[in-house]
Amino acid sequence: MVEVVIKSRRFRLTSTVRASRKISPPLSSQGSSFTSWIKENIRKRECCFYEKSVREDACKCGHPKTDHVEEATKPDNFTGESWDEDRHVREVPTDAFGDISFGGSGQKTGKYARVFTDTKPEILYQLLTEQWNLSPPNLLISVTGGAKNFYLKPRLKSMFHRGLIKVAQTTGAWIITGGTHAGVMKHVGRAVRDHALSSSMQGQIVAIGVATWGTIHNRDALVNPEGCFPANYELDIEGQGRLSCLDNNHTHFLMVDDGTQGNYGVEIELRSSLEKYISERNLGGTESGVTIPVVCVVLDGGPGTLNTIYNAMLNETQCVILEGSGRIADVIAQVAGLPLFQVTIALIQQLMKKYFGQEYKSFSDCKIIEWTEKIQDIIRKSHLLTVFRISEDNHRDVDVAILQALLKASKTSERLGIKSWRRQLELAIAWNRVDLAETEIFTEESQWKSGELCWAMRLALEKNRPQFVSLLLENGVSLKDFLKDEETLCELYREMPSCIFLRKLAKRVKPPEISMTHVSNEVRHLLGSFTKALYPPTDTPSQIEMPREETGSTGSQTKSREDNADAQRDPGRDLFLWAVVHNNKELAEIAWEQCKDCVSAALAASKILKTMAEEGSDPDEAEDMRELASHFEDHAIGVFSECHNNDEERARKLLVQVSPSWGKTTCLRLALEADDKSFVAQSGVQALLTQIWCGELSEDNPVWRVLICMVFFPLIYTGFLAFRRDEDIHREDENKEIKSVETVTGRTNSRNPDLSDPKRQKPPRRLVHLYSSPQVKFYWNVVSHFAFLSLYAVVVMIDFQATPSAEEILLYVWLLSLVCEEVRQVFHDPDGFGYHEKAKMYIKDLWNILDVLSIILFAIGLTFRLTTELFYAGKILLCIDFVVFCLRFMAIFTISKTLGPKIITVRRMMTDMFFFMFLLSIWVVAYGVAKQGILIHNDDRLDWIVRGAIYEPYLIIFGHFPTNIDYGAFDLDSCSMNGTDPLKSKCPVLNENLTPAFPEWLTIIMLCVYLLFANILLLNLLIAIFNFTFQTVQDNTDRIWKFQRYELIQEYHSRPAAPPPFILFSNFYLFVRMLAVRASIISKESKTVLPQMKEQQLLSWEALMKDRYLLSTKQKKNQSMERRILDTSQKVTTIADRLETSSAAVAQRLAGLEKQACQSAKALQWIMDSLKSQGFAAKEAQPPSQHQTSSLNMDVSKSQGVSPLLLAHFNPPCSLECSRRVHFHHKTTTSCWLPTSPRHCKTLFVGFRLVQVLCFLQVSFSSYSPAYYPSGDGGDHVDGSESEALDNYRNPRGRTGIRGRGTLSRLGPNQSTELVLTRIQEGHRSVLEYLEVWDESKGTFTLPGGALQSADYLPVTLDSTIRKTMNEKINANVSEGTKVCEGYVDDCRNTDNAWVEITVLNIHLESTSQFAADINSTVESSNGALQWQEVSVKTRLHSHQREFLRLVAKLHNRRF
Asked: What's the pLDDT score for residue 332?
């Protein structure tokens, strides 16, 4: 064993000498573990006995002598033996693995490894998946065919490239080829390259090349015992000789080594074993029993490819043959559709000679017989063979052909039985090909139950297949059945992909132990503590145990509670929440459409996503969450807008209705907590806020009336002020008046409602409603605050004595009432936030911060004021506090639509200015310190240092220039020489003459520079910042103001009615009440709990509005410019493909037509010459002149686009074969046949355009003289009176070959009516049926109807087909019918002067009507003369009656 290791090392050293300069040293960081794994598991083969072959410098193994180890060249080891592959080739650790770089444009890199032929496939699979980190495939595509370069038609090549990449990308497939840069492998590589260069596609395509090591050119560059990271491989096509270069577009390479060199096909066995091993692996790593499917795609190829196809089919592998690719592929494609007995040796010889060309001469007869037998065996397994053909009728791509072939194999597998459908669906989900599922699985033949597809729904959710989720819901999957078990939902959360929500849950509990209680707690944290738990906690066993005598009652209560929870549970909500928390937009969109309370769901999703975005650490993920939150906010806005436009009152109820599915909260609260400003800014929400603001007062009351009634409240009993209750009663009275027929013309007093009505508000209630209105409370508080500021100003300016006066004591009491109100706001918690959360919410408001600051300053100032030492300091603090109270007064303007947005702008600008001051302070301090140090020498007075270094430079910005920087303005008396005068600044440095010695030029330059940057640059920067902020806020001013307006409305909605200082009594009353009842303070909230019936009605109406919104959104999307451009692009591509496909066929057809036209012209010329030679020309009438003929031909050619040269061969007389003909005579003995119906004329081909034109009455036809038929039994005679009237009636569709009225009852239009009686037949599927009657005269079924004898609704002939009583009932209900169509009909009885015009009526029978019951009774007793039949294209009626049924089906939105 030691000897073998030494030899292998020597061999590696000698084999790597030439490539040592090209190989870069391996990186230590790139997988020392990978290198060790390779050395332990992957081996190669090497020759250990050198025996000279025919070539002088090569061994029989094919390698030169220099590539052998030293021991192999010694004859002593194997004396007297001849070279044998089994004995003289041994296994050693591989020396070629790592990364391969092909260089060139794009720097294409891949993975590679040199393996020996007997490597176990499980080791290779482990190398691919675990070491090279490839995801397990959902499909394995083995591409085989011609190993040499061959020509592929451009269209077939394009379709093959596009289809192969599409199937690999959409299904997550692996593509396995030979890996060299030639033949079919080269085409696969180019397809991968096109994918890499395409910006429209994402994701890497896995193309694995399994090649023979001994046939690879430049393989020495890949050898390194420690691996190459990377190995630089040169693609040398010209110098490769008999060897082959690796394809630079493949991603992974397995190079199979058997110890020889130059022998092709070594890799076939290992490749087959690897493909078989992969095909036995479970799909997706699950235990469902569905294995990874394998398909073999064949292009071109020779005998070796035939063996590959044959062996693949023996292994039950599906094969797809591309017709037109050449050689063996075309041979199999030509015989694939033939019966087996026709596939003979002679046929195969003929086809091989055709497609193989010169190569056919080297084939022996025995080989052809063998190949014929294999081809016959291949054709026998037709379920495993699919031929892809390019034709005009076949427009599918290669990817569809490949996947349909695999589904076909599953469908025809008898051993699978019913499971085959499940296998097909699982494959389609794994491939993510919903198009195949729609066409191949969910067909009209398959009937699915909801419970049968629950496994598919779970699989689609786990694999993130939104399109399949939507498809399954459309095909009957019920979310209620799918999520009826709570464990299913728990499993979805446990198997959720990594996200913020899962990481947050992992902090609470380990993923295998996740329950819905944990999910509920985390969701409540994201939504807010104002919500209730979405999933109530499950009872523990200790809670279930109870005394025996109480078991019955408690058990019934528990059962009722569980039933109530199940009744309130919304499976759409559960799925939607699951999709939202892991930020899956497509699944969340589908699940949102299934939610009951969709507006609340969208707003809750917005809140959850925004909270997770704030708590997340990944900025990209957070940005995606914010975008999704905005998306669902738009959904909420769209649905609510539809609701508000439809019914404003219901829309308001929707805002304040408590949602049981979303934590017992309301839409309005969710929108406010989610900071959804756009939703709150909607007109419907603002209307509700205005209603809350006005309270019970009418919204139409002018402000001045409200202000007057606040003081003179008796005016409310005179109708001076309108109340909302009165308007509602007035509106109800008007509605009753409109609905009442008796009082339409009467005069009512509804405009002046009677106040004595018991429904009217009583006087005490009116007074309470007036002063409890938030609007009135606000006005009183404005007056109170203004009075407080006035009293405050009087005290601090006029009456601030050492002993507090009465006015000052009143001020203190007033402030105490304000303090009590602020305390009440902090502890007022109707939503259950908790005092800690409520305090945080309170302090976030700027106005509350000002309130707290003003109270603290007042308390400190009052404390100082009551002491003698700090009396004046206390007054100073109180004066400063007055400024804060004045700023707080600005809050009253937030309710104003004009001033409210301006306050928002000021707040934003204050933030900008705060940060701007940091930048400005740098320049102020820099200039001030430099100036102070230059001018003043050693001034140690801090106050004057600050004045000189900061205060004076700051004043310079506003134009206050200093006088001590130049000689002209300097005054020596304004300063102190030694700085001893505290009221004067220290003088600058003086010289010997007692004059300032400062360098004037320096200080002036510094001042100029300072002014340049501070006054010009920085101030203009500040103006620009303010301008940007103003524009930003101005664009969103209305939206921001409407959102912040709610805070003021909510504050005064919950505030006591009395203003400060009288509010002190209200707060004292509430405090005493709280202590007595031991409960929290309760106030009116903006929420409503509806009864269950009304709640269901409201949610049903909301769902209807949601459907309208989704429909309008879809229509807008389809009509958008981007969608139109995309549709146009797809249509142009489709047309181009079809033109490219049909161009050759059209050219061939045109050539055939030209040939036939020439032959016809020659035949006609021969006939004319023969007739003339026999003397027939002298007996015929003189044909029309050349001028007339050419004129007629030109007219016809101009009207129909026919060449005059072609018309010259078709002048009358002529003879045409038609389905129905009428014979008429010319003035001469020659006869002519014309079609009798204009419709038949229009269907003639271009060679008979002249006859087609002559059918129209507008074209003169002098030789036209048809037979005259005055009635059905008349002969060829003319009645004088009727003949004169013929010219007044002319068939609007043209000539028919008959004159007169024929079998019709009158000249001109003959009116007829046909009835289409329809009903909906319910059963296993809903079917639209029509009533047909037996026509004895025709011996067939037809629609009921007939000719109209008068202006009656229905024909009289219905009495003979339908009972007279039924005819009368139908006649009575005909007014309810729908007119389907009316007008001219192509009837066989039509003549030149009489034709049929028909009216088709549809009477639809409702299943619950008595009329329908009578009709059904008549049908049952008709003995088969009346029958109900399904409206479909298969019905056996006249063609025009089938057209009537098609229109009826379209009228009822049914397929025909």
From this structure: 92
Structure tokens at 566: 């199940």
**How, if at all, do strands 1345-1347 and 1308-1321 pair?**
antiparallel
Q: How far apart are CA 149 and CA 354, in angstroms?
A: 19
Which parts of 315-397 fold into alpha helices (H)? 327-335, 345-356, 365-380
Helices (H), 936-1062: 942-946, 952-957, 1000-1011, 1019-1035, 1037-1053
State how far Cα 561 lies from the chain centre: 39
1400 neighbors 1314 (Cβ within 8 angstroms):
yes
Q: What is the mean predicted confidence (pLDDT) over 787-806?
A: 89
CB 514 within 8 Å of CB 625? no
Positive/negative CA dihedral, 1390, 1392, 1394, 1396 = positive
Residue from 612, 559, 562, 617 nearest 584 by CA: 612
Q: Rounded to an integer, what distance in angstroms lies between the CA atom of residue 1037 and that of residue 1043?
A: 10
Distance CA 662, CA 607 (A): 12
Helices (H) and strands (E) in the chain, counts: 57, 25
Tokens, residue 1237: 């119906």
The pLDDT mean for the chain works out to 77
Listed in sequence order, the residues at least 6 apart from 1396 whose beta carbon sits closer than 8 Å to its beta carbon are 1304, 1309, 1310, 1312, 1384, 1385, 1387, 1389, 1390
Number of Cβ within 10 Å of residue 232's Cβ equals 16
Residue type for 1071, please?
F
Cβ neighbours for 1271, distance < 8 A, ≥ 6 positions apart? 1300, 1301, 1302, 1303
Q: Note the pLDDT tens digit of each residue in 279-329.
A: 888 887 666 678 888 999 999 888 888 988 998 888 888 899 998 888 899
Task: Check: CB of residue 460 under 8 Å from CB of residue 440.
Answer: no
pLDDT in tens, 776-796: 998 998 999 899 999 999 998
- pLDDT at position 564 over 80: no
Among 600-604, 1183-1187, 1233-1237, the least confident range: 1233-1237
Residue 1085, judged by CB atoms within 10 A of its CB (0-12, 13-18, 19+), counts as middle
Buried b (16+ CB within 10 A) or exposed e, 868-900: eebeeebbebbbebbebbeebeebbebbeeeeb
Please enumerate in sequence order all residues whose Cβ is within 8 A of that of 466, keeping only pairs 6 or more positions apart, or say none. Answer: 584, 586, 587, 589, 590
Asked which of 477-491, 619-633, 1189-1203, 1343-1357 is least confident by mean pLDDT, the reply is 1189-1203
Query: Quick one: which of 191, 179, 168, 112 has its CA closest to 144?
Result: 179
Q: b or e along 11-27 (b: 16 or more beta carbons within 10 Å of the residue's beta carbon)?
A: bbeebbeebeebbeebe
- CA dihedral angle for residue 1227, residue 1228, residue 1233, residue 1239, rounded to 10 degrees: -30
**843 CB-near residues (< 8 Å, 6+ apart):** 849, 852
Which residues, other chains included, contact 536 with Cβ-Cβ below 8 Å and sequence gap of 6+? 520, 565
Confidence band of 1190 (pLDDT split at 50, 70, 90): very low
- Per the rule left: phi > 0, alpha: psi between -120 and 50, beta: everything else, 87 is alpha
Contact criterion met (CB below 8 Å) for 1284 and 1300:
no
Q: What region does 149 belong to: left with phi over 0, alpha with psi -120 to 50, or beta?
A: beta
What pLDDT, in 10s, does the model give residues 1127-1149? Answer: 888 888 778 777 766 666 677 78
Tell me what the mean pLDDT of segment 505-509 comes to: 82
How many Å apart are CA 313 and CA 296, to the nearest integer?
Answer: 9
SS3 458: helix
Total-model pTM: 0.66
For the chain, give the percent of residues with pLDDT over 70: 77
- State residue 970's pLDDT score: 67
Q: Which helix (H) or strand (E) holds 541?
A: helix 541-544
Q: Does the pLDDT of residue 1216 top 60, yes or no?
A: no
CB 569 within 8 A of CB 612: no
